[in-house]
Amino acid sequence: xxxxxxxxxxxxxxxxxxxxxxxxxxxxxxxxxxxxxxxxxxxxxxxxxxxxxxxxxxxxxxxxxxxxxxxxxxxxxxxxxxxxxxxxxxxxxxxxxxxxxxxxxxxxxxxxxxxxxxxxxxxxxxxxxxxxxxxxxxxxx
Length: 141
Description:
The protein has 6 helices and no strands.
């Protein structure tokens, strides 16, 4: 029972850590790297307006988001592996699936270009697993 609780806590903590890293990088993207796009997009709720706005957004905007997803996945995977029961990557894989599902939901809510669907979702699971492996390697497990 204690192991199950520890696994669940590891997944939750990893998800929170990944989300925080992703939000920080996306905030930097909209406030520092592409501030004019961030100002125009602020408060937009209509999907079609958002779709048109993103259709004209620079490719770099999306690349920064992908980098944020990768770094968030790496951080979340590392933390999930550190907090999970010894010698198991199961919570890390569960985190990878949850982040991928969150990425899919995000893409439905904020409709990006088609190439972003593939590129963005392709980085999540490998980044989470890489973070988990880094945690195992650093702990000697």
